[in-house]
Amino acid sequence: RVRAEPVDPSLCEQEPIHIPGAIQPHAVLVAADVDTLTVTACSGNVRDALDRDPLGHDLAGLLGSDLTDRIRATLQGEGVDPGRTVRARVVLPSSLGLPVEAVAHRNGERIIVELELAPAHPEDFRAASQLDTELAIGRLRGAVTLEEAAAVAARETRALTGFDCILVYRFDPDWNGAAIAEDKDPAWTRSLLGLRFPASDIPAQARALYTRSKSRFVIDRDYVPVPLVATPATANAPVDLTFAQARSLSPIHLEYQRNLGVNGSMSVSILVEGRLWGLMIGHHRRPHYVAPETRAAATVLADAFAMRVYELESRRLWQEQQAHLALESELVRELARSDDFVSALTEQRHTLLDLFEARGAATVSHDSVRRLGQTPPSAAILEIADWLRMTVPLGSSSYVTAEFAVAHPPSAPYAECASGLLAAFVDAERHHLLLWFRPEVPSTVTWGGDPRKPVLAGSGPVAVLPRRSFERWVEERRGVSEPFAPWQVDIAEALALAVEGVVLRQRRKIAELTG
Ligand code: BLA
Q: Where does the Phytochrome chromophore attachment site domain start and stop, copy by copy (predicted)?
């Protein structure tokens, strides 16, 4: 039962998804003490699957000595990274001589072993080969823009995993996100390409978990979770399933999938320099089983894409910075042979306007203004300068915003040319300022659902529910510019420092002339 009113999206962050106390039913899980390898917790389906109750018994009795020896060698002792994994195929007494996939990992004082049972209704999809993966990575390497790389990654990941749809989902600095590439079965007419989604769709604790643990696969959204049971001595310490492949996902998220028309799914983390840059998302309209080798291949591909993103973004940034540093040194040279910084920065071959893709720039000296390009009128600039002198904390020598009218409502009429503002103070007295303006980028942002109501109130034990509608919701974004980058602020400050030298020289000259 859903009540219609929206609730605070931060409620979503409170669900402890790393300790759900249950797993998905295609696997069995046993957890053992790291030192003694005595089983202290297991999933309730172990007895059926393995014909025995392992609680309180030795791990070796269940797994055999080969795997247990490798667990000892690799996962016991000090300094083992959480999530460190050992994989093997083991033949269990109950598995009729067929090998099952076993994966063991360490988390704190526990060894957690997952055994993958053949899913009840495996969708036959061939396992990825080494060659498939290598070819896919080769094609990714050939992509020369981010858009192209994302499109290739989506296409290759879908070919590998067989999902109806693969999306490349990219987070923005506020953790909203957008689907920047989509590769799908043409028969599925729903498209999420280009749509934006609010941060609460993938709440903070989920993003934190996805930064540590790289992939999630759900075979069948409508699965019945299998609860974990523990020996009485350990029943109070829930088993941390952060790194468990078969971790049961948040029921809120499964409801979200239902609302999206998604059954089988995956998400693989795209980590760039240790930060969660985005997710490779897989959607299937029916249940969808992905074999272990293919899951591994999808993760390798997401890593390769992350590397390509890093290369492309750092190359672009490097080129942009080089161009700016060259311009900056040109301007500094001009300043060095000048007694008048205003003319050095506004009247020579290169000017302030060449920096930072600004459309307008200005210098302010006491009460005089020099303008370049598209800026507010001089009187407004003087007013802005006074506001900056009063508002910017004394310790800082610059100010930057992409939404100036929010901080300074009187500037709202100038939003068209001055939504973005970067200002640098030249001198401690703040008589002199350098200003750069960026125009509004009037944008319509199309959200996948109304972003003002991402979360609905539930009733009874279910406090929150995801929105049910993913109808396109168009937001007109006004008064916002492209943001200035931190390195651009650094260059602005460095330039202001060079200007200060000219101002001091000027002042000395005037003193000499008049003194
Ligand atoms: C998790 N939310 C997720 C995940 C995705 C999304 C991809 C990762 C889980 C997975 O592997 O499937 C969201 N899926 C999307 C988005 C698109 C998509 C944005 O396809 C767009 C293309 N979610 C809500 C609300 C709450 C919420 C309101 O919408 C909370 C009240 C919670 N989402 C939520 C939680 C998880 C999640 C808790 C973690 C699931 C888990 O790993 O246990």
A: 145-292
Q: What is the number of the ligand 1 atom nearest to the C-alpha of 456?
A: 28
Q: Tell me: ipTM over 0.95.
A: yes
Ligand 1 pocket at CB < 6 A: 12, 15, 17, 167, 169, 177, 179, 192, 197, 200-203, 206, 216, 249-250, 252-253, 256, 265, 267, 279, 281, 454-455, 464, 466
- Which of 95, 118, 141 terminates a domain? The answer is 118
Calpha distance 143→151 (Å, rounded): 9
pLDDT in the model for residue 7: 65
Domain boundary among 118, 151, 185: 118
In this structure, the answer to whether residues 262 and 129 fall within a common structural domain is yes
Give how many domains the chain has, as a whole number. Answer: 3
C-beta of residue 249 within 8 angstroms of C-beta of residue 23: no
Say what the pTM is. Answer: 0.83
pLDDT of 24-39, one tens digit each? 999 999 999 999 999 9
DSSP result, 38-85:
BEEEEETTHHHHHSS--TTSBHHHHH-HHHHHHHHHHHSSTTPPTT-E
